[in-house]
Design goal:
Blueprint lengths: L6 E9 L3 H68 L5 H36 L26 H22 L4 E10 L8 E9 L5 H69 L5 H33 L4
Antiparallel strand pairs: 1-2, 2-3
Helix pairs in contact: 1-2, 1-3, 1-5, 3-4, 4-5
Length: 322
């Protein structure tokens, strides 16, 4: 020693306990998985809304076609009733009845037109197209039901990922209770004669003296874990209950569709054929004739509505949400 002051310099690094870094990495990966499953849920909802909006447009187009037919025959009926009244071949009540019914049918036809415009607007809002897209007229066909595997459902995956994230957050919070590691290296010397270089290392740990806040975070994370686990179980049970409800509705609509395809369609055509023969042979008057045609069309309208509701319910099943 030369009696001169020593100039000391060094570096120090504070490291958290090594296991905390792995815990944080797993939490970050789990957060990414939660966001990914959330995206899949949103995409599933958009697909469902698009299919149902499209199905509604196709159904309303078929409904409009039927009302065009009914509007046409009642317009002819109203004209014929007016002429018959003018010629003294019918009474005033028949004329008023024909005009009232024709006005009613025409109003319903116009309402269907507005329904189609609204359905197109709904479809545009779902697909978010800047330009108008007109759905071409096409057959109203039955959709297929897809077999369900709840393990592949984005909602189940989302809540399970959320539960996993909550569990990892609990583990991370516990890891953060572990002490920090302090590493330092120092060296010193002076400019005097016989100066020597001094150096050394120091290793220590930093232990927090107050644990209350961290314990509260652990408890909160534990509660979040329990809530997420409960939500995952509740969501799966809700899916199963909703699936049973929807399959019962599909069965109801399917029975009505099967009846029309096996019996109703043929019966409707027989009504039309019989009405034509009876009217032109003079067995029934014009009012009875168009009433028969309207009854036949009503059967077809009921069939179209059942197909529409069947398809909407099938889409609900294929993209089921509680």
């Amino acid at each position: 020693m030369n009696g001169l002051p020593i100039h000391v310099w060094g570096i120090e690094q504070v490291l958290e306990f090594p296991t905390i870094y792995g815990a944080r990495r797993r939490v970050s990966q789990s957060r990414y998985r939660v966001q990914q499953t959330m995206y899949e849920r949103i995409r599933r909802e958009v697909t469902k809304s698009t299919l149902q909006a499209y199905n509604r447009v196709v159904y309303l187009q078929h409904k409009r076609k039927n009302y065009q037919y009914l509007d046409s025959i009642y317009a002819d009926f109203a004209h014929a009733a007016t002429r018959r009244f003018e010629l003294g071949e019918s009474n005033y009540l028949e004329k008023l009845t024909a005009q009232a019914r024709q006005s009613q049918l025409h109003t319903q036809y116009l309402q269907v037109e507005e329904d189609i415009n609204a359905a197109h607007a709904q479809l545009y809002s779902v697909i978010q197209e800047d330009t108008s897209y007109q759905v071409p007229f096409q057959p109203l066909e039955l959709y297929d039901i897809h077999l369900q595997d709840w393990n592949d459902h984005p909602g189940v995956a989302y809540f399970e990922a959320s539960s996993r994230l909550a569990d990892l957050q609990v583990r991370q919070s516990r890891q953060e209770l572990l002490p920090d590691l302090h590493l330092s290296y120092f060296q010193g010397s002076n400019q005097g004669e016989d100066a020597r270089l001094y150096h050394g290392y120091r290793l220590g740990i930093g232990i927090p003296l107050i644990f209350g806040a961290q314990r509260a975070r652990i408890q909160a994370a534990g509660i979040e874990k329990d809530v997420a686990a409960y939500q995952a179980r509740y969501f799966r049970r809700s899916l199963e209950g909703k699936y049973d409800q929807l399959t019962a509705e599909v069965s109801k609509y399917r029975k009505a569709i099967t009846y029309y395809e096996q019996t109703g369609s043929q019966l409707s055509q027989e009504i039309v054929n019989t009405a034509n023969k009876s009217y032109f042979s003079g067995e029934i008057d014009y009012f009875q004739y168009i009433q028969s045609l309207e009854n036949a069309r009503t059967m077809e309208l009921d069939y179209l509505e059942n197909v529409f509701l069947y398809n909407q319910t099938v889409v609900d099943i294929n993209y089921i949400t509680p």
